[in-house]
Structures are given as structure tokens and as C-alpha cells.
């Protein structure tokens, strides 16, 4: 057997481990990342900071958990009950010695399902004068049912967010789509930009998905993240309309309920797409990465 046959026979995760990028664990979708992988992720973070036209100077790094009340207020569990990870603990130190796991109670935090949920509570229950821009970063958790390489349970997300009027929120997202196309082209990635659905407005039935597609509320940047992958969303540009403004009671004196949009990058997926495009030897990678 030649070495190239051996490589193609390995699973994408095993191949990534052999090439020194990742360190798998016994749990599907939970992976450690080597300094080699992290060096690319850091360069990507720097490139994203430079891309931000509002010059916020880099992301605010949030904790991997968010208040449970934030996620309840955003109605996340109504749309994605299967993905939410909760945190349980014993109610008091006395109970900490109790053998039964069933005595653990739900705490006041849940695992962050996306980075942008840290933003809306900061400006909740307010009437704003000016549109607001945010740059945030954090570990996210999604209780994914499948675990093909690229669909992780714990992963990092960088997000740029606008909270503003209806038109500015829409135009901001259009501008980010263009900016991202430019960035990914410079990084040597061949990307498809595709309309997608994301039922964050409600129960996510067929009607909701069709209506979201029709309204172009979500676009995904799709690229292969391993040799056998036909395409995975490495970033997404989302328009929330006034859903989160409504939920978090964010208003503008002149324009009424705030609209919002976010531009989200799945950092491990972008790095994996770069590895897929440029190979395992960083010395052979093109300069801009
Ligand atoms: P979404 O909120 O689903 O649009 O996710 C934002 C971005 O996070 C996506 O475009 C992906 O790049 C990334 N992402 C979402 N789910 C996962 C996952 N299970 N593993 C790795 N990255 C993910
Ligand atoms: Zn978001």
C-alpha cells in the first residue's frame, strides 16, 4: 500500500491528527488543537480584526457560558431545543458528597450556543440614540447529533454584530458578505455563498424555513473542510430583522424596535478549510494566510 492510499483510507479526523493539527478525545465532536493549528487560527483572528470597518481593535472575549435568562429571553430553546447544553450542579456544598447525579440542579448559566448572545443583554431594555457595533469571540457548545469532522460540539466563534435601523442592518450585512468574499479569495479559498434557513424566529417548521429562504435572511459561506467534504458552512451572515430587538426590548427613539444582523465565523472550520486548500505543510502556504 502506498502512503497516499493510507492517507486517503484514514478518517478525516485521524488524518488531521497524523498531520499534527488536532488531538482527538474519546468524545465525538470534542477535539484539542495543536500549536500548529492555533498559529493559523491566530492569524485568522488578526485578519478578521483588520477587516472590521468600525476598527473596534479586536474582539471582546466572552465566557463559554451565558446567563440562562439570556437564552430564555432570546427564545433559543424554542427553536433549537436539541442543541442547547445546560449546566447542572449540586445546590449546596453539603450535597456535593451525595452519590446521585440526579440531585444536581439546573444552574443559572447555560453553554453559549453562539457568541452574539453576549451582546443583546448589554443594551436590553433601552432606547438608543446611535446604532451599535460589536466584535465578540467565545467558545460555543452545540449538542450536535452527528460528529463528522467539522461538526464539533465545542468550537470557537468570532462574530461582528450591528444593532440599528432596518436598512442599516440590512446594508451592513450586504457589505460584510462582500468583504468576506474578498477575504476568502485573498486566503485562497474557493467559496460558494448559499442562501440558508435558520429557524431562530420560532419552531422552525417548513413554512418558517421557506419564508426565511425567500427573504434571504441567512447566507452561508460554504467550502470543503476535509478531503471527502462536499461543503460545510465556515461562516454565515444573518439578518435577525427585529426579532432580537423585540425580545430584548431594544428601541431607537426615531426608528422604533431595533433590527440586528451578525456576521459569524466558525474559526475551526475556516482553519480546516485553509488546511484542505493549502495542505499540511505551513511552509508551502501562500503568504496572506
Ligand atoms: P450559525 O449560528 O449556525 O450560523 O453558526 C455560525 C457559524 O458557526 C457557522 O457558519 C459555522 O462556521 C460555525 N458552526 C456552527 N455550528 C458548528 C459546529 N457544530 N461545529 C463547528 N462550527 C460550527
Ligand atoms: Zn450571531
Description:
The chain is of the alpha+beta class and 289 residues long. It has helices at 3-9, 12-18, 35-51, 68-73, 76-79, 166-186, 206-215, 243-247, 267-278, and strands at 22-24, 31-33, 60-61, 65-67, 86-89, 105-111, 126-128, 132-141, 154-164, 192-196, 218-223, 232-241, 250-252, 256-257, 259-266. The longest helix has 21 residues, at 166-186. Strand 1 (22-24) and strand 2 (31-33) form a beta hairpin. The chain has one domain: BirA Bifunctional Protein, domain 2 (2-Layer Sandwich). Helix 3 crosses helix 9. The structure holds adenosine monophosphate and zinc ion (ZN). Residues 114, 116, 159, 238, 262, 264 line the site of zinc ion.
Low-confidence stretches: 1-7
| Highest-level CATH class | Alpha Beta
Q: What's the average pLDDT?
A: 91
Rounded to an integer in angstroms, the radius of gyration calculated over CA atoms is: 20 Å
- Largest sheet geometry: 7 strands, mixed
Tell me which CATH architecture applies here. 2-Layer Sandwich
Q: Total strand count, please?
A: 15
Write the layout of secondary structure elements.
Layout: H1 3-9, H2 12-18, E1 22-24, E2 31-33, H3 35-51, E3 60-61, E4 65-67, H4 68-73, H5 76-79, E5 86-89, E6 105-111, E7 126-128, E8 132-141, E9 154-164, H6 166-186, E10 192-196, H7 206-215, E11 218-223, E12 232-241, H8 243-247, E13 250-252, E14 256-257, E15 259-266, H9 267-278
Parallel strand pairs: 3-8, 7-13
Antiparallel strand pairs: 1-2, 4-6, 5-6, 8-9, 9-15, 10-11, 11-12, 12-15, 13-14
Helix pairs in contact: 3-9
Amino acid at each position: 500500500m502506498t502512503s497516499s492510499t493510507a492517507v486517503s483510507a484514514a478518517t478525516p479526523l485521524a488524518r488531521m491528527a497524523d498531520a499534527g493539527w488536532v488531538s482527538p478525545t474519546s468524545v465525538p465532536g470534542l477535539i484539542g488543537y495543536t500549536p500548529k493549528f492555533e498559529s493559523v487560527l491566530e492569524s485568522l483572528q488578526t485578519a478578521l480584526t483588520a477587516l472590521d470597518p468600525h476598527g473596534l481593535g479586536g474582539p471582546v472575549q466572552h465566557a463559554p457560558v451565558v446567563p440562562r435568562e439570556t437564552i430564555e429571553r432570546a427564545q433559543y430553546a424554542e427553536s433549537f431545543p436539541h442543541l442547547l447544553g445546560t449546566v447542572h450542579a449540586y445546590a449546596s456544598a453539603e450535597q456535593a458528597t451525595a452519590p446521585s447525579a440526579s440531585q444536581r440542579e439546573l444552574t443559572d448559566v447555560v453553554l453559549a450556543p453562539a457568541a452574539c448572545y453576549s451582546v443583546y443583554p448589554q443594551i436590553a431594555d433601552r432606547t438608543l440614540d446611535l446604532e451599535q457595533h460589536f466584535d465578540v469571540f467565545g467558545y460555543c457548545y452545540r449538542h450536535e447529533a452527528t460528529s463528522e469532522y467539522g461538526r464539533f460540539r465545542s468550537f470557537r466563534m468570532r462574530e461582528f454584530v450591528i444593532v440599528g435601523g432596518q436598512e442599516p442592518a440590512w446594508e451592513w450585512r450586504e457589505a460584510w458578505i462582500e468583504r468576506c468574499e474578498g477575504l476568502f479569495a485573498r486566503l485562497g479559498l474557493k467559496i460558494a455563498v448559499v442562501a440558508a434557513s435558520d429557524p431562530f424566529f420560532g419552531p422552525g417548521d417548513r413554512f418558517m424555513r421557506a419564508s426565511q429562504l425567500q427573504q434571504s435572511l441567512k447566507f452561508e459561506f460554504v467550502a470543503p473542510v476535509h478531503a471527502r467534504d462536499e461543503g460545510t458552512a465556515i461562516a454565515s451572515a444573518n439578518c435577525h430583522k427585529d426579532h432580537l430587538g423585540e425580545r430584548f426590548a431594544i428601541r431607537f427613539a426615531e426608528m422604533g424596535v431595533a433590527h440586528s444582523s451578525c456576521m459569524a465565523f466558525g474559526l475551526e472550520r475556516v482553519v480546516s478549510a485553509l488546511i484542505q486548500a493549502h495542505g499540511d505543510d505551513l511552509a508551502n502556504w501562500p503568504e496572506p494566510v
